[in-house]
Amino acid sequence: MTPADPALPVLTPDLPAAEDFEDPKAAVDRLIALYRGSVQFLSQQFVQTMTTGRPATRFRAYYPEIRLVTTSFAPVDSRLSFGHVAHPGTYATTVTRPDLFRGYLTQQIGLLIRNHGVPVTIGLSTTPMPVHFAVANDAGLSVPQEGALEFPLRDVFDVPDLSTTHDDIVNGAGFTYPDGAEPLAPFTAQRVDYSLARLSHYTATDPMHFQNHVLFTNYQFYVDEFEAYARKMLADPASGYTAFVGTGNAVITTPDGQLAAPTKMPQMPSYHLVRPDNQGITLVNIGVGPSNAKTATDHIAVLRPHAWLMVGHCAGLRNSQRLGDFVLAHAYLREDHVLDDDLPVWVPIPALAEIQIALQDAVAQVTELQGYDLKRIMRTGTVATIDNRNWELRDQSGPVQRLSQSRAIALDMESATIAANGFRFRVPYGTLLCVSDKPLHGELKLPGMASDFYRTQVSRHLMVGIRAMERLREMPLDRLHSRKLRSFEETAFL
To answer: Is 439 in the same domain as 290?
Structure first.
């Protein structure tokens, strides 16, 4: 590949210089203005280049950034797990799509200003914005693949660079910006842009529709029930829900609205029951397997949801369990292998009391069982997650021994992955599964048994997940995003 000519002049947009802000709303307005200026510049130059051919200059625009400088060791409220930095120094984060993250950025910047008593500086970073991500905001534009043009695109524009698109911040790898500034937020702008693009691809809905409370499932039956529930909520003005968004960004606002069927289903269809400020519920059908579970959570994490829960099916491992019983995970046996490099298996994944209580209370509410009677239909214990769907066909002595040693009560292929990635990304997580088969006890998931199970249990199971999310929505953020998910060296932003 021919390298870009280093002597080629570089043309950049004329945008405002860095400025201090003590008003978080004004700070976010400036972020939006800087971002839009960079995007418009790159998009215009891209269109012109596609029309007139190779120019005699390079075009470059930069992501905006938030910067904080503090020199004081003044203590902050030690009960807070976010909204402050650990020690004096210079902190920064690059920002993309500030329009999409307006509420989040306003909240986090406001906490910084209040807790440290200093302004934040809003300006352009030194991180170039790839043209692919700039034109992604315009549905009418698309970047041609490498080799389709008469000249290398990277000779004229900056392109995505995987060496700067990583999880070093959340993985605790000691990331700093080139000038030595420590990170303010868990993701860089390039990492966020990458995931926003992947989300649109995998789920076939725009990231703007995702809500702050995310349910994961592994069966289409839950989608059907979720849509039925959504229509009931849209019929009730007191519910607070304002719309339902289906695959392909199809939107209805009335209970009898018609959802256009997508021409092609995506790998992980997502559905969104919308409330103001994204306080509704998103359901994602991730399908089967830990790889899908990791992919979905890797990308949804950049939206900074307030909680995600797995409400799928599992194999019951205890003879006393019955089909349709619930399993509330309070520990995980991780044999999914997809996160071993990012989060070693020796790292414990703790149960979060706030999530556990919300799920248990939701089960009690939906089933109308209390106290000791609740044990008849729900067990709390270790859930094992593996990456081999047909483990029953191998020599069972090894797996069964490990399951017994771990005291596992259920087996699936997604829950530990979702919980572990929640822990890694500081997103509150939980698992409530429903027993759909008992392979160790001769009850396999056969068509007739499965049909009866789905008909009687899916609606109740989904309703438990929804009720749990509604309880979590009412919880103050500083209680839900507790210190249990934070390390001793943390970003100020959630």
So the answer is: yes
